[in-house]
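pipeline/complex-builder :: batch 7 item 3
reading input block
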Amino acid sequence: MPLPTKDILGILADNLNKRKSVLPISAATATRWAKGLDIPKSGKTILYTGHMYQLIPIIDAMAGQMAKFEDAPITKYFGLGRNVNKFVNMTAFMGMMASKDEQKDYDRMLRNIALLLKKAGVDFGYLYGEELYSGALVYDEGLDGAFAAHAKRVFGLFKKHGVSTVITVDPHTTHTLRSIYPKYIPDFNIEVKSYLEVLAESGIKPTGETGTELTLHDSCVYARHENVVDQPRELLKRAGAKTNTPALCGKNTHCCGGPLESLFPAESHRIANNRAEQLKESGSNVATMCPICLVSLRKAAKGTIKVNDLSDTLAKAYGI
Amino acid sequence: MPKVSPKLASAVKCSDEFNAEACMHCGICTAVCPMGYEILPRKLFRYVQIGLEDKVREHVSDIYSCLLCGMCAENCPAKVNIADNVRFLRKYINENEFNLS
């Protein structure tokens, strides 16, 4: 028996309606990465994490459990789980199971991004504990009522803080804010840019030639929906890195399988394995631009190739 | 005998989110889909267009296991927004079958 779609979607919608995120996390977990960086609270331009990097270690802990449930008789109790979740935040327990090392790893990627932007001379603030998840997953699953209400909440937050430009760190938040919110909020007037676009437009200079050779795994959402293809390549080229091209790349990139992790873990892993095999053919050092791609491909590669976030490569190349 | 559901047919007609009229049934979408589904997307869209709700219901799990990666739409010669159509079907099922919104 596959995982029960209706009950899982119900939990996601309930969480977004009640707790303002599909997987609610504490403010401490969401903001830990920014400690000591002296980023001002709010501002006209803000760095917006949308909690994606912070959520991955928790999703990873949950995914391990969910994969065990797939095809197990226990799935019939998911309906009961949804009722319990209405009163008790079950994600909080999953959060406790997240690996501390993995959390440090993902926090470092966000620090890299903030430090790169500082080095590029960008003035930006951060909403700290007030920041909200974008609602991307709920939109993809077609839960429009919950998504529309949430989009209005996020826009209200931007208005409250006088935000006019949002710098995003991952493709899903970029796409949701830039291309989906305006469909649901006619007066949405926030400029949304990925940090890769901001850095590519800036005059940021590398510290020297890195000589790094890597294979870039394009994100489906960045490449096909948001036209973020050339910017990462330009930043790598400026730093003297050699970029290898996998068989499927740019606008024809191959999905990492990650979007299916919550409902169809086995299928998700099959797609991730296929992609990891393709990437292996063009090198043993892969960089991703999305935390979901990163976790999916790392698991699929099982250490046979190195898979890292592009922010790590850029941090090294630009002397962070 | 297949049963036609006027509700689904009219929901599709009224929506500006579902549009597969330009589909030429060339099958490129199926060929490039990383999931390798036989049903998705063109066969499924045909069922939707003629209101065969029972047929659509048989494929609920295929509809939710589309990656929405957009490889199909990127390569569609008729420029059909395939992933948007799949998302519309999820919305329809959520509202009409699962009582979710």
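note: The two ends of chain A are 49 Å apart (CA to CA).
queue -> next item
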